[in-house]
Automatic annotation (TrEMBL):
<keyword id="KW-0456">Lyase</keyword>
<dbReference type="GO" id="GO:0030170">
    <property type="term" value="F:pyridoxal phosphate binding"/>
</dbReference>
<dbReference type="InterPro" id="IPR000277">
    <property type="entry name" value="Cys/Met-Metab_PyrdxlP-dep_enz"/>
</dbReference>
<dbReference type="InterPro" id="IPR015422">
    <property type="entry name" value="PyrdxlP-dep_Trfase_small"/>
</dbReference>
<dbReference type="InterPro" id="IPR054542">
    <property type="entry name" value="Cys_met_metab_PP"/>
</dbReference>
<dbReference type="GO" id="GO:0019346">
    <property type="term" value="P:transsulfuration"/>
</dbReference>
<dbReference type="Pfam" id="PF01053">
    <property type="entry name" value="Cys_Met_Meta_PP"/>
</dbReference>
<dbReference type="GO" id="GO:0005737">
    <property type="term" value="C:cytoplasm"/>
</dbReference>
<feature type="modified residue" description="N6-(pyridoxal phosphate)lysine">
    <location>
        <position position="213"/>
    </location>
</feature>
<dbReference type="InterPro" id="IPR006237">
    <property type="entry name" value="L-Met_gamma_lys"/>
</dbReference>
<dbReference type="InterPro" id="IPR015421">
    <property type="entry name" value="PyrdxlP-dep_Trfase_major"/>
</dbReference>
<dbReference type="InterPro" id="IPR015424">
    <property type="entry name" value="PyrdxlP-dep_Trfase"/>
</dbReference>
<protein>
    <recommendedName>
        <fullName>L-methionine gamma-lyase</fullName>
        <ecNumber>4.4.1.11</ecNumber>
    </recommendedName>
</protein>
<dbReference type="GO" id="GO:0018826">
    <property type="term" value="F:methionine gamma-lyase activity"/>
</dbReference>
<keyword id="KW-0663">Pyridoxal phosphate</keyword>
<dbReference type="GO" id="GO:0009086">
    <property type="term" value="P:methionine biosynthetic process"/>
</dbReference>
<comment type="similarity">
    <text>Belongs to the trans-sulfuration enzymes family. L-methionine gamma-lyase subfamily.</text>
</comment>
Amino acid sequence: MNNDAQKAAFSTRAIHYGYDSSSANGSLTPPIYMTSTFAFDSVEQGGERFAGEAEGPIYSRLGNPTQSVLETRLADLEEGEAALAMASGMGAISATFWTLLKAGDHVVADKTLYGCTFAFLEHGLKKFGVDVSYVDCCDLSAVKNALTDQTRIVYFESPVNPTLRVMDIAAISQLVHNYSNDIKVIVDNTYCTPALQRPLTLGADLVVHSATKYLGGHGDLIAGAVVGDEETVTRIRLEGLKDMTGAVISPMTAFLIQRGLKTLELRMERHSQSALAIARWLAEQPEIEQVYYPGLESSPFYQLAQQQMTLPGGMIAFELKGGLEKGKQFMNNLKMIKRAVSLGDAETLCQHPASMTHSTYTPEERMAHDISEGLVRISVGLEDVKDIQADLSQALSVC
Ligand code: 4LM
């Protein structure tokens, strides 16, 4: 491993860290170990690896050298001790929760979560005797009041999908750890990536990702990851991944994410720059009721986002005057911009959370969890910002 790049800047480490080409015949890019299993030199060596007494690969459900390069690099970028890459964001989230919880435990989660995360907590974990309280994690006293002796996890996204509320990660982590060091603060960092925000440096215990999004960055894979301290990540690998979910990442996918990481900082800068311009423009349009974007000075989260994130990111949500019907009309008018869920791709994507990503909530739950029926979400892509704006403009003009 060539880890000299450790002291280098983020973009340099995103390209070099965790791989030494001299270990692989000089291959500039890390080889893809497309193998399910690994041959042992002897029965004794195999036994030692299984017993954890010797280093070395065993079977790709437990790890694979291509995956290891990605994990080493991602852990470094998030400033964690270790990372575990998995088959999807939901694979990473579920493996993490299954490992850390047992029946009778309690989770405090923010009131607005990606739809399948909400469904996992509400319909999955609750079925197995885990209690979940949803609170507004922007309200520190609400978080404090929700903690009990049974609480083991405090979980939130920041910024939140889809409403873009921003949580004070340092303040929440401090409050929770003052209450008990047995509670893990877990932050879903999908919207920011470590290029814009590093929750572990702010006091969080674990970070989870849908690597499907900005980390991969090209809309061509599904993957996830968890990053944190070595001991917990090893437990998640050996319990949540190996025995409970089996949500293993393929070597090819791990390779594609490594490729995505090389341009992560560049892409996040461009996504943020274009999204800020688009959000400012949207806020001036007479057809628009409200724009949610933490980079707008008018946002209630502007100051916190300035402190906690290096840039405001590429995601925008907004409501049109006329609500749901106008929102649908607007979306159907789009020409270049794709009507699609997911985010963080080169292509600008537009979706309707109430009927798509957050349709796992009932209409009553959506209302209680702050997801309005008329909300439209845009993942601002890497096209020229003038072309993105032109498409939005023509779609608005015929509403
Ligand atoms: C979407 N999101 O919003 P996988 N955490 C966050 C997410 O946004 C997602 C996941 C986890 C969307 C998918 C259709 C904050 C997903 C789950 O899809 O399992 O990699 O990640 O459009």
